[in-house]
Specification:
This protein is of the alpha/beta class and 225 residues long. The chain is built from 8 helices and 8 strands, in the order E-H-E-H-E-H-E-H-E-H-E-H-E-H-E-H. A 4-stranded parallel β-sheet has the order 2-1-3-4. Strands 6-5-7-8 form a 4-stranded parallel β-sheet, sandwiched between helices.
């Protein structure tokens, strides 16, 4: 029996975000590799949805590490250790194919090699997720052959706004922002308000996201045997 992939995220803040997450779940299900259940909503709604899915199941975060504070807090509060016939994966992180896609998105958005670059993450309280963000920045820097600053919208310093200002003070008139975020939402409007040369769209939609989620599922389901 193929374990159900239970996709988890907070979608209580915005209808467009909810639509994007549902589209992601449908795209994963359309591959036909595993049954997919959606656990999107407020913390209570998500916890109830996860419990309602019969095992075996693999609980998979539908967000990137350091890219969604609300979903990270929600996921950390789920009592996953006591779910029978289940296991879970980590949020999407420094996956080379996804970082390469992010670099390509920068070029498509108008980045050029002389521009400053800021990787815009959300932040969270976990040191592990912060390390993932730093790893993504280093990988992106190697891919672009250019320095990449990190800026955060929540909880950590420097802020995205400070990172952009610092590059401008250092003589970079043109600054591009690479958004480390899986789906659109109200927080993304803060990035759209930045006075920058280029801003990448959220990582989804992309077949690479679906590929990576399914790869996580395949790796995790072996733990249920």
């Amino acid at each position: 029996m193929v374990p159900t992939m239970v996709l988890v995220a907070d979608d209580s803040r915005d209808a467009h975000r909810r639509e994007a997450l549902c589209g992601l779940a449908e795209a994963v299900a359309d591959r036909g590799e595993a049954p997919v259940a959606q656990a999107f909503g407020s913390p209570d709604e998500v916890a109830a949805a996860v419990r309602s899915v019969p095992g075996p199941k693999v609980v998979v975060p539908a967000f990137v590490a350091g890219g969604d504070v609300a979903s990270a807090h929600l996921f950390s509060r789920l009592d996953l250790a006591h779910l029978e016939n289940s296991c879970h994966t980590s949020p999407l992180g420094a996956v080379p194919s996804i970082v390469a896609d992010l670099a390509g998105r920068l070029g498509e958005a108008g980045w050029s090699p002389q521009d400053g670059v800021v990787l815009a993450a959300d932040g969270t309280t976990g040191a592990e997720e912060r390390q993932v963000v730093m790893d993504v920045a280093r990988m992106l820097s190697r891919r672009l052959s250019a320095p990449v600053q990190v800026g955060y919208l929540r909880t950590w310093a420097p802020s995205v706004f400070d990172a952009v200002d610092r590059l401008r003070r250092d003589g970079r008139e043109r600054v591009a922002v690479a958004a480390w975020r899986l789906v659109d939402g109200p927080d993304f409007d803060l990035l759209r308000g930045l006075d920058v040369t280029a801003l990448t769209a959220p990582l989804w939609p992309s077949d690479l996201v679906v590929d990576t989620l399914l790869a996580q599922h395949r790796a995790a389901k072996g733990r249920l045997v």
